[in-house]
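so the lab meeting is tmrw and i was supposed to have these ready like two days ago... anyway. pasting both below. for each one the top line is the aa sequence and the line under it is the structure tokens. i havent really looked at them closely yet so no promises
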Amino acid sequence: MAYMSLRNEYMNMPPVTRAYTTACVITTLAVQLELASPFQLYFNPILILKQGQLWRLITTFLFFGTFGFNFFFNMIFTYRYCRMLEEGSFRNRTADFVLMFVFGAVCMICFAFFVNLLFLGQAFTIMLVYVWSRRNPFVRMNFFGLLNFQAPYLPWILLAFSVLLGNAVYVDLMGIAVGHIYYFLEDVFPNQRGGFKILKTPSLMRTLFDPLPDDYQRLPEEQPGGFQWGNQNNRPANENNAEHNQEQNDNAENR
């Protein structure tokens, strides 16, 4: 019974959250069982560029350390805020959510070339938390029953807690910076006077992650050529006949 409820809960997870958290757990489990080594997973620009070890661009986001408090703490926050984002502001917008993942990963990798960072999973989690907190500014939060605050302060509370645990402060700062860049480009700049949407999800990505249902009826603006406003020549013949008859009736009444 417990297995079925756990399985149902797992299958009810939104797809991106399920895929990412599963990959993180499997990667950590592989290291724990000595099937893989952290030395094969960490971000190393020299090995990536000179030896073509491109998998490090992905595995650097999947390893949170061996099983312990730090691992479970990060996984809880990753699962919670990744799921709330996907079921909240990204509901029915899986392609846009994947684009946010790609954007955040690319930005962090670019930063990592100039900063000595081995694993970027914690920074990625902070990015997810930051975006969620800015999109839910009025939510009241409670941190271990000690602090009550508004959601936008959550990334900074986690930053302070990370410092108390002895973690490097610039890891969380990078996650906050990348999260703010995404939030500004996606939510702030397009709403400014003269602003426009910079991050546009490619049509191929929408085809892969947001397939249309079989009974979907295309809107007029989605048809090839869009609306036919003012195009008198393309109107159906019955509409033209109706207008002609109306004109004849009006003329008869005026006589």
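ok protien two:
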Amino acid sequence: MEGKELKSLDELIRKNLTGADLLEFNRIHYGRVDNHELEIKRENVQYGSENNFEISCYDFPANKEEIRKPRIVKVGLIQHSIAIPTDKPIIEQRTAIFEKVKKIIEIAADEGVNVLCLQEAWSMPFAFCTREKQPWCEFAESVIEGPSTLFLKEFASKYGMVIISPILERDETHSDTIWNTAVVINEMGKVIGKHRKNHIPRVGDFNESTYYFEGNTGHPVFETTFGRIAINICYGRHHPLNWLMFGVNGAEIVFNPSATVAGLSEHLWAVEARNAAIANSYFTCAINRVGTESFPNEFTSGDGKPAHKEFGHFYGSSYVTAPDGSRTPGLSRVKDGLLIAQLDLNMCRQIKDKWGFCMTQRLDLYANSLNEAIKHDFIPQRLPKN
């Protein structure tokens, strides 16, 4: 795979620019000359190398204040490929992913991560392209008692970290309905809530509405020991109002666990979460799975092209953006990885004061206009030529 795909756009730049040119690129592209890279324990770097995952760590300091103390939080983002072929038994596939992710979680804990987020539908292949109900619906699980939650609760309580676990949910209380859901587990191992994906794609091989519809949990923000967090699942990143509402509800960090492929969205990837951080004065954490997944039976995309067994290449490239628009380099396009960012949440208010985007956003104006726009007899506000 690494022979077919570009390993990393960031690495490509670093290899071909030096000195003043590289610093100027950093200023323009990342928003700061110095990426504020933090040192990772040597033994953890070695362990990652031995287990085929990379580790990166960056700092986002805020200005020193007289009244408020720094509010330092370390977030961790995990991107990974599936572990064994998709024709293997369901339990074997999930167990193999657990074993792979366990190693990364333990390194995150050793590096002091406070809030950890995994990718969309992390404990299964992204099989929604197939439109097959079996065996893929068997991956759906309970928010409270499902295998993914039980697996992660132990790490959360053992290491005192909040863990966000995006899963395929089976809602047994409501007619066994399936949802695309992010489960939030606090640092004591307790499930404190969930959020269901608000926007469902119907494009290319993303046939997710075959399995679940739009979520019904609104835009919840979770009060945690380490700050106010929210989750904008995957396709929701294409909808600015989705990002907006998490900000309106007070989010300081919004995670965007995703599963998206090259050729469809990669030119948008570095833009959307970064724009959201700027517009809403909060931190955003964009996480994408990595690797190419092949399925037992061929499927089509409804575009007249030949049937195929592969969804496409999930290009990883997970990154973090601060409220001032500065961002980290991305993780690899081809390799599992752990991205750690040390955030001073005081920056959220500091940027609100500096830019005033939240103060000047005119929610009243748009609320009135949107209330009119959703009416069946809505007349657009357009002026004639003459």
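from a quick look at the 2nd one: The first strand starts at residue 53 and ends at 60. The chain has nine helices and 14 strands. will dig more after coffe
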